[in-house]
Design brief:
Helices cover about 40% and strands about 15% of the residues. The protein has about 425 residues and is an alpha/beta fold. The chain has a domain at about 85-105 and about 220-400: 3-Layer(aba) Sandwich (Rossmann fold), CATH 3.40.50.1100. The strands form 3 sheets. The chain has a 6-stranded mixed β-sheet. It has a 5-stranded parallel β-sheet with strand order 8-5-6-7-13, sandwiched between helices. It has a two-stranded antiparallel ribbon with strand order 1-2. α7 links the parallel β6 (about 155-160) and β7 (about 180-185). The chain is globular, with a radius of gyration of 20 Å. The two termini are about 35 Å apart. The structure holds pyridoxal-5'-phosphate.
Amino acid sequence: MKYFSLNHNAPEVSFKEAVIKGLAPDRGLYFPKEIKALPDTFFQTIENLDNITIAYEAIKQFVGDEIPKANLKAILTDVLSFDFPIVTVEENIAALELYHGPTMAFKDVGARFMARCLGYFNKDKTDQDVTVLVATSGDTGGAVANGFLGVDGVDVTILYPSGKVSDIQEKQLTTLGQNITALEVDGTFDDCQTMVKEAFLDEDYHGKRQLTSANSINIARWLPQMFYFFFAYKALKSSNKKLVFSVPSGNYGNICAGMMAQKLGLPVHHFVTGTNANNIIPEYLNTGLYSTKPSVQTISNAMDVGAPSNFIRIQELHNNDIETLRLNLSGYSYTDTETTNAVESLFANNDYIADPHGAIGYLALKAYLKKENQIQGVFLETAHPIKFLPVMPKHIAKKIEIPVQIEQVLDKQKESIKISNYKQLKSYLLA
Ligand SMILES: *Cc1c(COP(=O)(O)O)cnc(C)c1O
């Protein structure tokens, strides 16, 4: 499979090159050159297929012959070693829980898949080692660190804002050791991200270190997120209702992967995006004006994104036409108070504990369902509520049992290197 840059000013590349580079040299996101729908028989018989087979069928055309079938299946078996339960929350509304992986964030699947692809490409050690550089506001870093732990030939450097991630998130970032290093930045998440961007533009690393990103701009982190939508379809197919997915969104990688699944033929009736105060896309759908803005801090902080990087891929999937997009996507945004109220009401009325991101997905789905019936709605629950304890209502926080994945890191010793500017990052990377 060949990939082209959505800035249209860079050469086409293979899957391998796109994964190693992350971003095209013209700063554009990579996009597959052709997309072939899966045969009808695949959807007619999906209930007889296991998750690994479904995932393999969905991803194989994007990998092509660059990873042999047996290796790709082994990678998928390893990556998808946990459950993706559909939990009924109320009539016609289900939560798709994506948080049962090792760091309890949905990003586990993409991070693990990307790590294993890089590990495969590096197996003969003919290429130079790769350094994955990632800035995190909390959730991404843990998933990436865990996904890449112990992968040969790949070092991971994570920048996180000191004092601005939850204790659990910090432990997940700083206690792994081996090929993972946490840089604790005296600054904000935006400062971390600015430094990472500067590093990617800095020519001084050429020939010394191959830097790559593990954000959802990387196709190997983005595309495996398609699997969730196939799994949900398989679970809900027998209801014979139209399927609507509501996705709490920040960089729009997850929802865009759902749209890619739809492009492969998955019968999805409509997508809904829920956001916090960073409401760029709902605004765009309402007004037709696309205006990015500096991100504002909210309690659903994994979605505090003011310039959603994957939106350009969504436009590409909809012929760059807003009317086509409006037929397939609705968007709603919510304040922190509305979000907390939804967490409270889900607990009181539905006996369901949602994290703030999932609660926004739920609210957006409810808003959409006012317009249409005969729908089976699914909202994506993107993180375990334990990851966001400091912002959960106290009486609900008390009820959350600590999962084993989290318990395991709590006793471990934090190790980080403190930095406060780009010069320090650079001397660390070049050392
Ligand atoms: C990253 C993240 C999101 C947003 O996903 P995008 O693919 O960036 O839109 C939502 N919820 C949680 C918990 C996340 O970690």
